[in-house]
Write a structure and sequence with these properties.
Length: 129
Amino acid sequence: MGTIVAPRTSQTRDNAWVLLLVLVSALSLAGCNRQPKPEPIHIQVTASRYTFQPPVIHIKKGQDVILEISTSDVQHGFEVKELGIDEPIQKGKPALVNFKADKPGEYKVECSIICGPGHEHMQGKIIVE
Ligand SMILES: [Cu+2]
C-alpha cells in the first residue's frame, strides 16, 4: 500500500512544479505585454550643399523616431512644416530631433537656412507608412 502512495505523492509534487512553471511563464509573458513600447529608431542624416543624406527617410506610422542630423559643410536648417520640425544644424553640433508621425503620407523636408545659391533646391522627404 505504502509503495503505491509514495509515487502518487511525487507525481503530485511534479504536477505542482509544472503548474508553478506555467504560472511563472504566464506572468512574465503578461509583464512583457504590459510594456509594448518599442525603442525609438535612430536615423543619421547628413545635410550638405544641397542635399540631405539619405534623401528619403522611411518610417512606420506611430514609430518613435530620433533623427541625428549633422552638416558636413556650412550651417543648414532641417524643416518639416507638416510635422512642426525646424532645427538649425550647425557644424560640429549634431541636432537630435525626436518625433512621431501618426498620419501616413509624404512629408517634404526643406533647408530653412540660406546656405548658398542651391538652397532653394535643397530638399528631402520623409515617407510615413
Ligand atoms: Cu539651405
